[in-house]
Design brief:
The protein has 223 residues and is of the alpha/beta class. The protein is 41% helix and 12% strand. The chain has a six-stranded mixed β-sheet with strand order 1-3-2-4-6-5, with helices on both faces. β5 (180-183) and β6 form a beta hairpin. It binds iron/sulfur cluster. Iron/sulfur cluster binds next to α5.
Length: 223
Amino acid sequence: MIQSEHQRRAYLEALGIDVWLPRAEPEPEVIAADLQPVAMDWSALRETVSQCTRCRLHESRTQTVFGVGNPAANWMIIGEAPGAEEDRRGEPFVGRAGKLLDEMLRAVGQNRETAFIANILKCRPPNNRDPKPDESSECRGYLERQIGLVQPRIILAVGRIAAQLLLETDSPVGRLRGRRHQLGDTPLVVTYHPAYLLRSPVQKRKAWDDLCLASRVAAETGA
Ligand code: SF4
């Protein structure tokens, strides 16, 4: 007959047999977890980014530029890095290029409140130079977590650097745009950076085609 531990002890005690109990293990010391971005919620992520010193860019920034918009957006816009104005204001895509991006968003029924806008890098590279590989790899976990939290239906990568880093390619934008890519489970469309479109307005027609493609893909995914 199977006895419960309680019955067994009562039985042994009744027989006058000492019952040896295992010594209680000391409570393990609670060690503060070194939370990785992949496990962070929005507030932990925002706080961590604001204090980040993972790469040299923290030395020259005025502030980090986390991103703006709807944390559950269907559309996610990803650019390269903050420029001088963004670094001053703490918001991505401000100034003339930002206004053009706003117009592009409006053309597809989106705006800064409905979409989520972020950059690959959260700190400004000095003199707006291209991000260095170690800087983008150090910062990438933050963007990946943002994408994981937003779970967009469509990602619009604007500009060469964003497109190449997200898709891990060195193909030029001219070859990456005009078709649908995948970033994990999320469809991604590439278009020109609005700052480039200001310099080369003749390319606006192609950017419009890219927006139409992104809209169609978003509609297919239910956005
Ligand atoms: S660019 Fe990214 S990794 Fe580098 S200091 Fe800024 S937040 Fe940290």
